[in-house]
User: Which sequence fits this backbone?
């Protein structure tokens, strides 16, 4: 699958000709100044939770592209109230068939409110199962034993895990998460954007390497093909 990094936790994944965008936060990310948010293609936008660093560009991209937004019931209601009605509400434990593949919502251990203070429901991670392979997008989360369930019931070809620490797991816990989900190809996210989550990237890559796993870090704007 072709994966584009738009900075922070925002990725574009191309699956079966459809463009999936995760957690759009671009125009307010100083590090992503090279990305023009108005050129981002989207057929679906998957939103793990409502914190500003995951939804800052959600409304504008949804309006421009009319992409379907996959999110919690509470975020779906919040969007509907703003006139964005192409939404698909889900909750933890649920699975739905879309034209690009199946999406299953899984537990994320975090908090969830929208920028205006509205309650956002449960924060979530997503497992995307496709005919090209399966991947896990963890959202913002702590390491949790529930991750074992993800790897026990399917092959995870690659996974997006937060590694910035402070608000989420750091690299050491992300290595344990990789073991839990039985996945050796980890794409790092949620690091370096703000002072609280600045990490030593080379040290993190080395730690993964020592644990027999690969930590893949993108430059912002970079596209990689990952299987
Ligand atoms: Ni968050
Ligand atoms: Mn966050």
Assistant:
């Amino acid at each position: 699958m072709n994966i584009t990094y738009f900075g922070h936790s925002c990725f574009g994944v191309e699956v079966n000709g459809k463009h999936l965008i995760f957690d759009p936060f671009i125009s307010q990310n100083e590090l992503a100044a090279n990305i023009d948010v108005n050129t981002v293609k989207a057929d679906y936008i998957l939103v793990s939770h409502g914190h500003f660093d995951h939804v800052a560009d959600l409304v504008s991209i949804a309006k421009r592209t009319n992409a379907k937004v996959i999110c919690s019931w509470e975020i779906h209601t919040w969007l509907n109230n703003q006139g964005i009605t192409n939404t698909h509400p889900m909750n933890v434990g649920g699975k739905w068939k879309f034209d690009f593949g199946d999406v299953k919502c899984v537990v994320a251990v975090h908090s969830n409110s929208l920028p205006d203070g509205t309650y956002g429901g449960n924060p979530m991670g997503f497992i995307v199962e496709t005919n090209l392979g399966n991947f896990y997008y963890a959202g913002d989360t702590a390491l949790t034993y529930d991750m074992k369930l993800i790897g026990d019931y399917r092959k995870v070809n690659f996974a997006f895990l937060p590694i910035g620490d402070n608000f989420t797991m750091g690299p050491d816990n992300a290595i344990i998460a990789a073991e839990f989900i039985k996945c050796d190809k980890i794409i790092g996210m949620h690091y370096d954007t703000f002072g609280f989550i600045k990490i030593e990237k080379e040290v993190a890559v080395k730690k993964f390497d020592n644990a027999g796993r690969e930590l893949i870090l993108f430059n912002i704007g970079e596209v990689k093909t990952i299987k």
Remarks:
- Residues 49, 51, 110, 140, 167 surround nickel (II) ion (ligand 1) (CB under 6 Å).
- The chain has one domain: 2-218.
